[in-house]
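In the current project phase, we have settled on a layout for protein records. One protein thus recorded is set out beneath this paragraph:
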Amino acid sequence: MTPASGLAAALHDGPPTPPRPSASVLLVDTTADPWQVLMMQRPSGVEFAPGAYVFPGGSVQESDRAVAAGPDACRAAAVRELFEEVGILLARRRAGGQARPEDCDRLRQRLAVDGDWWESLELLGLEPAFDRLIFLARWITPEAVRRRFDARFYLARRPARQEVVAHPQEVAGWRWITPRAALQELPLVYATRRILESVAAEPDISRLIARLRRRRESPPVMPRIVRRADGSIDIQEPTVHTGDQRQRSRHRS
C-alpha cells in the first residue's frame, strides 16, 4: 500500500494483477523500555513507496520455495530479506545455539563471493529459525493498485548481540522506535500504519508475543479502493465478523 501522496498515481483501470507473495518482519528490541521496533526507510528513487518507512521484507523468490513449501516459503523469504536488508540473521548453528554476530560476518563475506543465499547458509552450518517468526497479519493489496502483494507480517525478537548492518542500496535510513512514536513521526504506507496500530497499545512485549503464539493464522485483510466523485480516494477494510466494508482512511488525490 502506498503513502497518501502517491496513492492516486499507483492506481490503474485495467484488470487486477496477481498479488506477489511476500513477507515483512516487525523486528522488536525487547531490551528497550518501552519496547521498540525496527523501521527502515525506502530509497527515494524506488518505484514502491519511495521515502516511506517500512518493515524489512520483500517478495518470495523461487530459491525460498526450494527450501520451504506453502506458507513456510514466506517465512524463508522473511529470514532471507531480513538479513539482506538490515543484516539481522534469524538462524541456528547446527552445533547448537543461535546465530552469533560472527556468523553474520561470515555469511556476508561468503555472499560477497557467491551470491547463493541458501547454499551459503547451509555451507556455514546454519539453519533458518522459522519458529522465531510469529505470525501477526496477512494483507493483500487492493485490486485497483498496480503493484500488488500478498504479504504476511511476522513479529520476531532481535537476536542477542546482533547489530543492524543496512544494505546501502535498499535502505536509505533506519530507526529503532516505539510503535506509537512511529505512527506520529514517520511517513508510512497504509498497511504499515495499520500494522503498527494493531500492536501500539500493548506495553508488555512478552504478553503480546505470548498472545500471538496462541493464535492461529488469520484470514487476509483485503482492503478495496473507492474513488469518489470529488476526486478523493477511500480505502475500506472488511469487518472481521460480517464482511461488510468499513471505512478506515480517506486519501485525497
Q: What stands out?
A: The chain has one domain: 4-218. Confidence is low (pLDDT under 50) at residues 1-5, 240-253. The two ends are 15 Å apart (CA to CA). Residues 72-86 form the longest helix (15 residues).
